[in-house]
Automatic annotation (TrEMBL), chains A, B:
Essential cofactor(s): Ca(2+); Mn(2+); thiamine diphosphate; Mg(2+)
Statement: the UniProt record of this protein carries the keyword Zinc: no
Protein name: Transketolase
Domain Transketolase-like pyrimidine-binding: from-to ranges: 313-476
Organism: Phytohabitans suffuscus
NCBIfam families for the chain: PRK05899.2-5
Subunit organization: Homodimer.
Record PANTHER family: FI06132P-RELATED (PTHR43195:SF1), TRANSKETOLASE (PTHR43195)
Gene3D superfamilies (UniProt xref): 3.40.50.920, 3.40.50.970
């Protein structure tokens, strides 16, 4: 039997039947896996049956069709339901469905883009809706196409603040092609949710945030159908279908019972019988609305700002100006900022390309998530805030790596060198955080021309790239137009008789050069390397320095853990060679307020501190 | 002239005068500093004048009085206003006020507990209200005293999802001794906020979250006074005073103007004249309400669970059981969980000590913030969620270190060894994140008895301690009652002729022992160290191993960056000695779903992978 919605509208009974099939398949595949979340799938099965049958517009044969709707499972643990839908839509086979959670299978415990019909990874709750907001923004403001974004949410995840960042952003932006479907099954992982089946409690909150709220019995197929119809007819605001459902619906031994989260049903064969047996319905999903073509902003020649050697400029300013120039060259570049564009200097881009600038206000999680949604839809997003405040969105960065997302992030106001504002505003762990991200790139330029070149390189870099910028002015030391390949470094001082090598990046490069000058005047030749590419580090240069100078001194405006010093040490952690004597200079005491120079002095990472450490390292009497 | 509220209620005019004094002092101290946020202080000056004069109940001479109210500046950048209040209250001198933002001053750019009247550091927006919720919970459920918690919030920070986690938690808990005062001055850092002066937009949201909302003109002293009176008379729900204000109020050159954020006013002398000149009012703050004594839960003997060597138990279970036992011994221990108590096993504590257990639902930021608030009020909080999801609250952890907070955090479900759930649920960066925290302790036990001992040690540990636990069962290898000092390690295999040392922790300890057995059978003696204390690492044992065996192999269920391997390398980063040959084994590819054993195998951190790596390290042919 084929359910099809292309000509005749499938009836309510057919949709009810499909709902049962989705349940049966969720039960079967999780039973075969010995783990998984069938009960969380069963509560939402009727909702997804109606969506798949009558409302979703999607070319299953061409997941990259720019006219496709997008469906995000914010409650990623309901992956059995998603995979059952894909089977019903003919995207995957019945056999593949049964590989759920096995080694090598694309059907992971939580959805990832290893499946071509999945845009982004989910599984950390509270992320799918914010990402969906990014997709809806792309549809409304960038592509300017009528496709819709559908997000299946759980009720437990409504406790996450990031969901309310999403409700706020979408409500204010009036994203009427975005619909959240909330599966209010009353039960979280360990018991009842805060509001259980008090749908009105949720409705009050969502209405207050500017959404159209449609309450429905999530197992009344006709009512669900009407709810979707209301959602698609809503204009000027996003819509949410608040569906009262029962977890484990359809199988008495688990339905609406505590202690049944995240495990196969106890007797799968009996459950399948109770659900009416295995079915083999297929759905021909509606064709996308192919009205219009995706809007494209024009490309143009790249005209990067150039800085005179010897001038002074902050790397954050160079970042902003380069970004504006890049935006003129590439129509696919978009920029997001967390209400600090005057500090990060993305204001230059905002002024030049207002249609491609997204003010996210002080909501770093929503900002990062929107960027993830935009890159999934073929954009090249850059997002910026203070380096310290990326720690606010780090779970989203972590999940973006699971999403195989290509993102370019900038953190300004790095380190103690910001000065008087004190430790709450100082990014002192950002290098460590971004170095842990799988497949990441971590860059830390020391002058304006270097910054500009790296910004351009980031646009074509796969994975998550992070650029660290400084607040204060630094001297321009490289001529405009020089290239700074990712994975490279620049040796600023060297001689055949160097007794040690100082590795620095960003603000400490200039201190290191000054320290080398002092040491030279004392007859101690020191090599200085500008390690602007912290990850990947220039291993060849590190090894050569170790071989030739025997002593390595690393200097960073960062906590001792996980930054430049560890990146240098990492080169020797393959066991292939003994490591030379290495000393790490970093920020070791909690800073307070002081001028930038006083801060560098107090942390011992100014020229004087570096020179002292170098002498001690050579004397064999450090610390 | 002295403004006093102990007998006669100070009049409106006096409060208006004090408001002007607070503005003048904010202007003066930021002008002297050459930086700071006078305009953000001036908008809230009338609000704080009324609070300080008539409503705050606080013994300035004894900031540790348990009956004191608490005042948190969630908009920490308005520190000049706070310091001006402290001067007016006689806590600091006029001279000290003028040290604002100078090297060595307690008056930092953003408030920190270096000032005894400041409970917690603020400055990363969106954190003060969630921390205030923790204080109000302490008052209502632990201390059971009538003190109040007041939180001054900015309007910009209402974009942070964490604020809505706080509104949700406090509203649902009915914390009627909590009052938020929102300074709606319409202007954020870089321009207008999303809702500007649309107080109704905020009011709808906060009402929907169960708060009593009081809208007011924040410069109408009489109206502000009535608003506070309404707030303190509110029962059964928290209250919020939504105050329409003007940024830079009182100085025409900056009042309600863009581009005047975060900098001294242009002409301070003229501004002070415009504000009516320097004043020298003092306020005698109302005495605390000394009704009652703080409730204390009883202490008792400590009776830790004991596990038989050779039995199998998950360290997460041992954590939960030890925590329950600790709760019986210490009445000051409280526990918070993010709706995963059945996974983290804090459910044992919840069952044994329900009055001291706080269900925070899936809101990790609010959970961490509540713990920060509770430790500021003399409690010993433990908080737990999946290791991966601590990344959600990391900005709060970062700020907790600035707060000099003593916190005990547990992350369960660490590493690829969780198995089928896949990468979204795997904590693979948690060791790196927590190692970057200033003054932190990072522990990773491998068996149940070791876990229990470390849980007890954490209770007395200053700073932020983190315990990593595993999902699956591991064999018990240590007898009950053995001690595992923080900073120590256990050498599990050793001989005088060891050719290398394997450093492992948690799940990899058991794999390392098995690898050593395999190597021994091939005639390769290998030392095995259980490095359960990742930070501080047992440097002496690391050095001895390097000296005696020459080759070090580290093995961790974690990304390569920032974890155990880097902790071992860190020992050699003082430059005092050359580094031996070191190889780090870690998780290098993005995992997917598979069984725990398959995961360890795929990552090359099982016994076979360790033995292979050991042979290659000794052969000098790694990788």
């Amino acid at each position: 039997m084929a359910v099809t919605n292309t000509r005749t509208r499938p009836g309510l009974e057919q949709m009810a039947e499909l709902g049962q099939q989705l349940r049966v398949d969720a039960v079967r595949c999780s039973a075969a896996a010995g783990s998984g979340h069938p009960t969380s799938s069963m509560s939402a099965a009727d909702l997804m049956s109606v969506l798949l049958t009558r409302y979703l517009r999607y070319d299953v044969g061409d997941p990259d069709d720019p006219h496709n709707d997008h469906l995000v499972f914010s409650k990623g643990h309901a992956s059995p339901l998603l995979y059952a839908m894909l089977r019903a839509a003919g995207a995957i086979s019945a056999d593949e469905l049964m590989t759920y959670r096995r080694l090598g299978s694309r059907l992971e415990g939580h959805p990832t883009p290893r499946l071509p019909w999945v845009d982004v990874a989910t599984g950390s709750l509270g992320q799918g809706l914010p990402v969906g907001v990014g997709m809806a923004l792309t549809g409304a403001r960038l592509d300017r196409l009528p496709y819709r974004t559908w997000v299946l949410c759980g009720d437990s995840e409504l406790a996450e603040g990031s969901m309310w960042e999403a409700f706020e952003h979408a409500g204010h932006a009036g994203l009427d092609h975005l619909t959240a479907i909330v599966d209010v099954n009353r039960l979280g992982q360990r018991g009842p949710t805060r509001h259980q089946w008090d749908l009105d409690a949720y409705a009050r909150r969502m209405s207050a945030f500017g959404w159209r709220v449609i309450e429905v019995d999530g197992h009344d197929i006709a009512a669900v159908d009407r709810a979707f119809a209301q959602a698609v007819s809503t204009e000027g605001k996003p819509s949410v279908i608040l569906a009262r459902t029962r977890k484990g619906r359809g199988v008495a031994s688990v339905e609406d019972r505590e202690g049944k989260h995240g495990k196969p049903v106890p007797d799968p064969d009996e459950a399948v019988r109770e659900l009416g047996g295995v079915r083999d319905l297929t759905v021909r999903v509606r064709e996308p609305d192919r009205t219009g073509t995706p809007h494209r902003f024009p490309d143009g020649p790249l005209s990067l700002p150039a800085y005179e050697v010897g001038a002074k400029e902050a790397t954050r300013t160079a970042f902003g100006r380069a970004l504006a120039a890049l935006g003129g060259a590439r129509g696919d570049v978009v920029v997001l900022d967390g209400e600090v564009a005057d500090s990060t200097r993305t204001e230059f881009f905002a002024d030049a390309h207002p249609e491609r600038f997204f003010e996210c206000y002080i909501a770093e999680q929503q900002m990062l998530a929107a960027a993830v949604g935009m890159q999934a839809l073929r954009r090249v997003p850059f997002a910026a805030t203070f380096a310290a405040f990326w720690s606010r969105a780090f779970d989203f960065v972590r999940m973006a790596a699971v999403s195989r997302a290509d993102l370019r992030l900038c953190g300004s106001h790095a380190g103690v060198s910001i000065g008087q504002d004190g430790p709450s505003q100082m990014g002192l762990e950002d290098l460590a955080l971004f170095r842990t991200v799988h497949g990441s790139t971590v860059l830390y330029p020391c002058d304006a021309n270097q910054t500009a070149d790296l910004v351009v390189a980031m646009a074509d870099r796969a994975g998550i790239s992070y650029l660290r910028t400084n607040r204060g002015d630094t001297p321009v030391i490289y001529p405009a137009g020089e290239r700074f390949p990712i994975g490279g470094s620049r040796t600023l001082r060297r001689s055949p008789v160097d007794e040690l090598t100082i590795f620095a990046a960003g603000v400490t490069v200039h201190q290191a050069v000054e320290a080398a000058n002092r040491l030279a005047s004392e007859g101690v030749p020191a090599r200085v390397v500008d390690a602007y590419s912290v990850k990947p580090i220039d291993a060849e240069t590190v090894r050569a320095a170790a071989h030739e100078t025997g002593h390595l001194l690393t200097v960073e405006d960062h906590w001792p853990e996980g930054g430049l010093g560890d990146a240098v040490l990492e080169v020797f952690a393959t066991g292939a060679e003994p490591v030379p004597r290495v000393r790490k200079l970093a920020v070791r005491d909690m800073p307070a307020s002081a001028t930038p120079d006083e801060q560098l002095r107090a942390a011992g990472i100014d020229a004087r501190g570096i020179a002292e450490a170098a002498r001690a390292l050579l004397d064999g009497s450090p610390d």
